[in-house]
C-alpha cells in the first residue's frame, strides 16, 4: 500500500516546489512531486470511534485469551461450573429461610405517613376543594380527597414549592425543610402536631379538635391560625370541647423520640414553646450553652499561707 501523505494546498505546494526548480538540477521531477503531494490519501484505515465509546467485553468460554482464563471464572468441576444453582440453595437440605424464618427488612417502629406535595394542595385550592382562609388539617385533606389514607399522619413535602400562590396555615404531623421554607416564604405558617391512629379516626368523625389539646397554647401556632379556626377567647381544652360538643381529647406524645421531635423549633413543633432559654429539644443531651449556664462561675481554690503545694 502506498504511503499515506497529507494533501497540501496547491498554493503551498507551488511555493515549496518553485524554489527547488530554480536551484536544483532535478527540476524535471517537479511535476511528479507535485502529483504525489496533492493526491488524496486514503483515511478509511485510520478512522476510530470516540474515546470511551467502545469497551471490550469479556467473552466467557473462549479459552485463556478471553480475559477470564481457561475455566472462564467458574473454577474446576462441580455444580457451579456445569449448571445453575438456585438462589438460597443449601445443598438439598431444608432452606435456611424455612428453618429460621425471614427477619429484618421492615422497621416496625417507623411511622407510616401519607405524603402530600404543596403543588397538589395548591391544585386543590384552585379547584375550590380546599379553603385557604381556614387552617388546613388532616380533616380537610382527607375529606377533600387530597389524601386517601392518613395512616399514622400526614407529611408535607416541598416538591414544586414555587407553585404555592397564597398564604396557607397547615397543621400536620410532619413536614420537610423545603416545605416549611416555601410555606413561610408565601406568608403562611406550618405547625407539626402529634397524632395517633385513634386520634385521627376521631378527628375525621368530628369527635375531636384537629389540633387544640392539653399541651397546646397560643404560642404553639400563630394567632392567624386560631382566628381563622374561629376558636373562642379561652383556648383551654375543656372550653373548646364544651363549645363545640366534642367527645374525645387529643393525646400528647409520651415516647422520648416523639417528644423531642415536637419540641424542636426547626420542625415547627407545637411543643417548642416549652423550651427554656438556651435549652435544646433533646431530653437526654444538653447543649454546650445550657451546660455553661448551669455550671456557673468556677470558684478559685485558696491555699493556706503555710502550704507550699
UniProtKB/TrEMBL annotation:
Taxonomy, superkingdom: Eukaryota
GO MF terms held by the record: structural constituent of ribosome
Segments forming domain Large ribosomal subunit protein uL15/eL18: 115-190
This protein's UniProt keywords: Ribonucleoprotein, Ribosomal protein
Coiled coil start-end: none
Region Disordered: start-end pairs: 46-92, 285-309
InterPro entries per record: Ribosomal_uL15 (IPR030878), Ribosomal_uL15/eL18 (IPR021131), Ribosomal_uL15/eL18_sf (IPR036227), Ribosomal_uL15_bac-type (IPR005749)
GO cellular component, one term: mitochondrial large ribosomal subunit
Name of the protein in its database record: Large ribosomal subunit protein uL15/eL18 domain-containing protein
Native organism: Penicillium ucsense
